[in-house]
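WP5 quarterly update. Target: Phosphatidate cytidylyltransferase. Source organism: Hansschlegelia beijingensis. Length: 312 aa.
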Amino acid sequence: MSETPLVAFIQDELNRPVAPAIRAFASGIAARGRGGVVAVLFYGSALRTGETDGLLDFYVLLDDLAAWDWGRAARAGARMLPPNIEYAEHDAGDARLRAKIAIMTLAQFRDHARAQSLDTTIWARFAQPVAIVDARDAEAWSQAARAVAGAVRGAAWWAARLGPAEARGEEFWRELFRRTYASELRVEGTGRAGSIVDSAPERYAAVLPLAWAADGLAFAQTPEGGLAPALTASQRADAERAWRRRKRIAKPLNLARLAKAAFTFSGGVDYLAWKIERHSGHRVEVTPFQRRHPLLAAGPALWRLWRKGVLR
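Structure tokens (predicted):
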């Protein structure tokens, strides 16, 4: 089957070189799915910079939620409000790699990647560069690639309607990420949205017309090298109203996911211990009881750290 120019572009990106230790980490994660993992995606700042001393970001795409080794409550949470988030570590020689893992089915990913989805997080993240670091087979790899291309299409749909009437391609993305960052619960500064585009402006300029063409959106190329999507004032106004609805629910949706994570975040106590050590230099020894009962143990542990001055 011949692929669209957009899918071909995304496939080339997904094949980007990644450190063997990261691929080994991803393969170990995929093994937990007992053959039910379609692919593992690697994205985020570590992919852009190549640095591995921070937190790696993986997305695990499943055939079915039953493939993952989690309890009934976690599975119900993944069904109602995907993805579920976990924390994992992997020793690579003398280095220890750490990762945040998001888990959802391929079907859920496709659904949330659509422009029509009320959840903006999937297309906002996966419009950015991604690598496939593990896949079950060639067909699974292709399925994941087409799903990522679908996320780029979803984001480009919004970039056309929320962006300027005419501009260089990267400026449409800059405005879109400014909007998505403003709508979510974020700890990063306001300049982070622009820095994403600044890391690869030629890439964002190149992928936008491919995504518009795949979506059937007509556009003109200006003599100055810009793009002008063929949209009416009414279409733009409709999109602004639709965006306001998504903006209203974005932060409550983030809060709901955080509340769910209190009960489903596997490895969360180890993640918290690492974060405290990374930011304060204070090493926290995690006990078996704390791993089994993170909610019961969190309060007393944090109180002791506060008394020692670690959290002030």
